[in-house]
Structure formats: structure tokens, C-alpha cells
Amino acid sequence: MLSFRRRLIVSLILGVSVFLFSSCWRDPNLRKQKYFQSGQHYFEQGKYPEASIEFVNAIKIDPRFAEAHHQLAETYLRLQQGQRAAQELARTVELQPENYQVRIELANLLILGHDFQPAREQTDLLLQKRPDDPLVHLAVSNLLAAQSNFSGALEEMKKALALDPGRWELYLQLALLQTTSNQPDAAESSLIKVTELNPAAPQARVLLGNYYQSRGRVGDAEQQFRKAMEIDSRNPEPRAALARLYLAEGKRTEAEDLLQRTKRDFPDNSAGYCLLGDFYFTTGDLDRAIAEYAALYREHPAETKVKRNYIQLLIQKKRFDEARALNDELLKANPNDNDALVYRSQMQISGGNLNDAITTLQTVIKNDPSNSEAHYTLGVAFDKSGALDRAETEWREAAHLRPDLVDAQRSLANAALRRNDPSSLADAATQMIRLQPASPEGFSLRALSEINRKQFSAAEADIRQAITVAPQNSFGYVQMGNLRFAQKQYSEAAKAYQHALDLNADSKDALRGLMNTYISQKQVENAIVAANVQIAKSPNNSGFYDLLGSVLFHVNRDLNGAEEAFEKSVQLDKSNFDALIKLGEVQAARGSVDRAIATYQQSLTDSPREPSLYILLGELYESKQDWAKATEAYQKALEIKHEDPLASNNLARVMLESGGNLDIALSLAQTARRGLPDSPDTADTLGRVYYQKGDYKLAIGMFQEALQLGEKSNAPDNPNVHYHLGLAYEKVNQPMLAREQFERVLKISPNYSDAAEVKRHLSQLKS
Q1: pLDDT the model gives residue 705
Q2: DSSP letters along 224-281, please?
């Protein structure tokens, strides 16, 4: 037992300790520093959510703690929360107005977010206060470049270099700017300057290698990549660049071997060991990519990059349950994880939940307006919901925010193709060429735009370039076939299409071109033989059976053979809606409307969120005059795809036939007209609504427009529109014009379904 004296001493010591400890803990300066140091510790470990909590705790104690605001901004940047980071940097500047380094950081972050006016306010002040700071001129250069003022951006870069000519990083930035400004030779000189100033800078070697590769100097490119590998053996990027070079040269085995070695050499670096899986994905081998990432996830379950890439692959393979489980782990760790929210939206899009996807993506963009991937995916969601104009707006914003996002340019190119806009197609294709000069895709798409504009010489030059950069790819040869077809050189076209098929036995575009070449020469049997030959080589290609069925149906009128081909196409690919639609059309043409209905209903069990199937069902029910079921089908389509113009038009038409609410019908018809402004059918439907509402002058205008649109599209003269126009003229007491339209109906279609009514109206007209 302790003596009284010793117990007294111990109790006094403990009391003093508790007093000192409690006093320290009550000291706000010590408490905020403890939180700040804890946040720094988490930050250094890469535990950014935990770090943010500690920095916020420090700020709660002292809202004027500038260093904590600054570190919180850096943490938000790591968490990809750009808007919050900018707010914290702005608060830091407010507390430390003479902290010009933070002002530079804020300016650059505002530029990334395209907040140009506040960025300009920062750079103007910085130029006034720090005119001799090269980093200030670099920030100004970044601002001007972001606003596409490349000449001004280059001038500011030169000022920065004049102030600090020995800083190699500035030459690196200059080279990037010169590349963007299409000054490749100047960019090469700048990159060489970087290597002179800092021979140990691997980034410059890689960029220089990329430049040489784009110029076809393969040996020089490989030399630079290997030099970068020697300089920094712990950096996997030079190896990735060399693998890309091998792949562009068709040396797939060499690329794969290199990346397998890279995986072994970088067992603890995700940037290295993920390259092999990324290679499989890039080359289209999704099964091996998934297998590789599944193995990586087992080995590195806590590595976020592995998890993110694995989720994206699972989404690609439509393995949504697995993808969702992994994605939920990311969102549990950080509910504001923008990447995970984008992945969620992609799954929502695939499941047909377009409204949910749009809401999710708009949340991401609200939190991070500069998130290019969110803008791109929102474009996809709008496109699938029928809002192509809004989709293109998002894709343009994505490309603006991230000029190297080739997917955005590809989507813009596809949109231009759908709108038959060769000029916009050429613009998007040119950007694809700039981004991927070693890919044939951009050259092929630009050639297609030139073919459509009959610029055959330019098209041939682009096609030959496509073939030069990728002689083993079918893209260039398909376009060569299209060019020769447009020039009516059918024999040469057939040779080009066949060459494309020899390179890629699964090319639907090549087979379609070959078959069209035969059909144009009235050699239908040869087209059918060509399809069957290719099917024998690739028996699991759904698209080939679709092409065969189309010829048998539309050209040969072999309904039995067409139905068999379309059934096989759908059996191979349940998502081939083109074949599915035609299968129902064939069945209906054979008088089996109920079978066609059963076909579409069965497909809805596999694709319950596909609006086109409901529209097809509605049209079949219309043919049976089953207005209730037709209405139900069109309403289902509109629940999935709001403002779908075809569903809106058809529902308005059914309401006219069944005595529905004219105000609702008018709204639907106007929606359809906006969505399909070049459609004679939507103009006719809107005219019919105006007629039913008694606004005959507006009705006449719509019917006249429907006839004009029909002429422009070379569609057969439509007796229904003439009949409707005649009725409207009759209502406004213009009997001669009405007679002209009624007589036109009977001339076009002597057996017109309402011929008796037409004759009755004619008999009642005054001379």
C-alpha cells in the first residue's frame, strides 16, 4: 500500500495533469491546431474524406483560420469537388488578400470551371500587384486559351518565359499550347528545349514521342519513349505510350507483352498494374478486360481506381447488379462522389430510367459545373429521351470543357449524321482527327461528309489517309466503297466493300454496301448470295440476318424467308430493335396482326423500358381500331420517353379518332411538330386538331405545309392530306379549292377508303 505521502504526491501530480490537460483542451488555438494536424495526417495518407472533416472542425473553432481553409480547398480538389474548392480558396484570399500564390491557384481553378469573369478579376489584380511573376502570366495565358484566344495566350506565355527562361515547366506548357494552336513544328522545338533544360523530365520525352508518332516518325517516337523509361523507371506512363505506339503499328502481341511485364514491375502502383486491363478494353476484348479487373479487385480491394474501372466494365457488360454493389461502396464512403454518381446515371440510362438519370447528372453538374463526363452522359440521356437538341448542347459543353474527349466529338458526328448535316459532321470529324490522328475513324467520317456534298476529290484523300494510318482496319475500305458507289462505279465499289469484309468479317456497313451495290444493278439474287456467304463466315451476326431479311421483305417480297431471317436476327440479339420492328411488320403484312402484337409484347418482357416497342404496339392496335389499347401503348411510351414526338403525334391522332380532349391533343400535336419539324405526318395531325377546334385558317396552313414537306422528301402524294385540306377549304367557303383537293384524292387513289365521303362532298359543293 502506498504511504500517505506518496499517495498525496501521486494525487497532486494527477490533479495537476488533469488540470493542465483540461486547460489545454479548452484552449481554442491548441484545439484547432490538433484538428489541423490530424487533417494533414489524413491528407498525406490519401484519406481525403477524413481530412476534410478535420479541417472543417478546425474552421468551426476559428472561421478565420486561413491555412485550414486553404488545405480544405486542396482536399476538395482531391475529392473532385471543384466548386467547394473554389469557395475555400476565395475564403482564403479574403482572409489573406496578399497571398498571391493562392490567388493564382484560385484563378486557375476558376478557369477550369469556365468562370471567366471572376478569373479575370483575379488575373487583373495579379498583373497589377505581381507583374514580374511568370506564374501570373501563365495564369493569364490559361485564361486566354480557355476562351480560344490562342494568339493572346501565346503572347502571355512568351512573357512568362522572358521572366524565367530557365523554367522548363513553362516550355512544356508552351508546347501544349502550340500543339492546340496547330503549330506542331514550334511544339517540337519547345519540347526539345524542355529536354535540354531538364534532361530528366520524362513528360517532355513522352510528348515528344507522341509528336513524332503523329508525324509518322515511328523510330524516333519509340526512341523517346524508351528514353523516358530509362529516366524514370518508376513511372508507368512511358510504357503506356510505347504500348500505344505498338498498338497503332498493329503490333498487338508486343504491346500485350510489354504491359504484362509492366504489371509485374508495378505491383503496388495502380497506374502501372491497370494498364493491361485497359489495353484489353481499348482493343475491344471486354471479356479479358473484365477477367483482368476481377483479378485486380481481388488483389487490391481497397484501390479506388481499380474499383472505378471495374464498375465501368461491368456496366459495359450489363452486369448491373455487380456494378451497383461496388458503386454503392463508393457512394457510402462519399455520397458526393461525382464519378460514382455518373456511373449510377449510366445504369439508370441502361435501365430506361431516363428521368432519374437526368436528375442524377444535373446534381453532379450543379456541384461541379466543369465535369465533362457528366455533361457528356447527360447528353446521352437527353438523346435517348428524344431531346437531340439538348443532347448536342451537352456534348458541345463536354467537348468545350475537355477538348480531348473524343466520345463527345463522336456523338456530335453521329448526331450530324442523323440530322443529315454534312457540314457539322465534317467539323466533328476534323476534331476527331486532331485528337486521334492515328485512328481511321475521323478520316472516314469526314470522307462521308464530303461524299454527301459530292466533294469526291477531298473524300478520296481522306479515305486514303484512313487506309494509310490503319491498313488492317475496315473503316477506310467501307468509305472507299461508299465513294465509288456515289460515283456509280459499282464494280470498284463492290471490290472495296469485299476488301472491308475480308478484313472484318463482322462489318455490317461493308455487307450493306455490297448488297446495295448489287441491288442498284438489279442483281438482287447476288445481294442475297452475298448475305448468305457472309452469314456462313459469321453465323452469330444478328445484323447480317437483319440485312438479309430486309432484302427479302422489301425487294423480293419473300415474306416467309424475311420472317425467318428476322426471327433469327432477334434470337441472336434481343436488343436488335431494327430487326424486331421489321419482324412485326412482316407478320402484319402477312395478315397476322395478332402475331405481330404478340412479338412486340414478348420483347417488352426483355426490354420493358423500350419506348419504340410501345409505339409499334400502338400502331398495330390503331390498325385494328382498338383506340383504348392504342392510347394505353402510346401513354406508356410517353411515360418512359417524355415528349417523344412520334408517340405524341400518334396519341394525338388516336384522340382525334376516338373523340378525346382536343386541348390535350393540341398539346401533343405541338410537341410532335417541334420534335419532327420536317415530318408531313406531324403537320397533318396538327392541322387536323386545328380543324376540330374550328381554327380552319391555321388548319389550312398546316395541311399545305404537310403537302410541301411531302414533296421535299419525295414521298408519294398523300390522299389523306388532300382530303383534310379539301374539308378545311369547304369550311372557309372556298368551293373551287375544295373541289380541286377532293378530285385530287380520287385521282391519286381511286379506291380510297373514304371515297364515298369524298364523292358526297363533291356533290354538295356549289359550282
Answers
A1: 94
A2: HHHHHHHH-TT-SHHHHHHHHHHHHTT-HHHHHHHHHHHHHH-TT-HHHHTHHHHHHH
Residue identified by cell 466548386 is: 83
Q: Give the number of C-alpha atoms closer than 13 A to the C-alpha of residue 190, restricted to the C-beta side.
A: 26
pLDDT digits (tens, 9 = 90+) for 177-212: 887 777 888 888 888 888 888 888 888 888 888 888
Closest to 531 (Cα-Cα) out of 496, 569, 474: 569
Cell of 278: 485497359
381-415 exposure pattern, b = at least 16 Cβ within 10 A, e = fewer: bbbbbbbeebbbebbbbbbbbbbebbbbbbbbbeb
Q: How many helices (H) and strands (E) does the chain have?
A: 45, 0
User: Is residue 269 left, alpha or beta, with left meaning phi > 0 and alpha meaning psi from -120 to 50?
Assistant: beta
Q: What percent of the chain has pLDDT over 70?
A: 96
pTM above 0.85, yes or no: no
Written as one string, the DSSP assignment of 5-44 is HHHHHHHHHHHHHHHHHHHHHH-HHHHHHHHHHHHHHHHH
What kind and span of H or E run contains 51?
helix 48-61
Q: How is residue 190 written as a grid cell?
A: 519547345
Do residues 59 and 69 make contact, with C-beta atoms less than 8 angstroms apart?
yes
Residue 169 pLDDT > 60, yes or no? Answer: yes
Best CA proximity match to 334, nearest among 301, 373, 367, 371: 367
